[in-house]
Amino acid sequence: MHTSFPERFTERRELVGLAPDGSRRQLQLEEHWFHKGHVILKFAGVDNISDTERLAGMELQIPEQQRAELEAGAAYISDLVGCSVVDGDRSIGTISEVRFGAGEAPLLVVRRESGDEVLIPYAEAFLKNPALAARRIEMTLPEGLLELQAPLSEEEKRRQKLEAQEARKAEPRKQGHK
């Protein structure tokens, strides 16, 4: 669970669970506790492992008016998703999701017009003007960041395939010389 406010579960009892298929479920929080750096939540009517499995993959949501104030530079995921990302005069694409756990900064998954996706760290060093109300985030990205993630050209794919085939052919010879 990604929350900067685990203590708010003391006062917040009504939550909504958003399932991966888009369905929603009202959840009544009975209690919460901390275990090994995580917040454990106990919901009314969820009393065994089978009940718990039905909640797997759900995103917990709260009404917008119940949100806690954020520090400068921080943003709620729901405010980021759908924003366009630009770097100078170059349009990058639209944020489709935010991923955590790959480092210090969350990763913005940005879908380009071509349909491919690029990952951009939501790091203060790259933020120029996060105009969330205007659904636009201006960034100054390091040179080459997007090019590193570009899909391989047909020539690059062919070259990689040939290199892999040559490496497989050379492998038995290396083992024979041991």
In total, how many domains does the architecture comprise? 2
Order of helices and strands: EEEHEHEEEEEEHH
Radius of gyration: 22 Å
* CATH level 1 name of the largest domain: Mainly Beta
**Through-space gap between termini:** 51 Å
> What amount of the residues lies in strands?
25-35%
Annotated CATH architecture of the largest domain: Roll
Strand order of the largest sheet: 8-7-6-5-10-9
Give the biggest sheet: 6 strands, mixed
Overall form: extended
Q: What's the pLDDT, averaged over the residues?
A: 84
Q: What is the CATH topology assignment of the largest domain? A: SH3 type barrels
Number of helices: 4
Backbone structural class: alpha+beta
DSSP strand count: 10
Uncertain runs are none
CATH homologous superfamily (4th level) name of the largest domain: PRC-barrel domain
Characterise this structure.
The protein is of the alpha+beta class. The chain folds into two domains: 6-66, Elongation Factor Tu (Ef-tu), domain 3; 77-148, SH3 type barrels (Roll). The chain is 20% helix and 33% strand. It is built from four helices and ten strands; from the N terminus they run βββαβαββββββαα. It has a six-stranded mixed sheet, with no helix packed on it. Strand 7 and strand 8 form a beta hairpin. The protein is extended, with a radius of gyration of 22 Å. The relative contact order is 0.10.
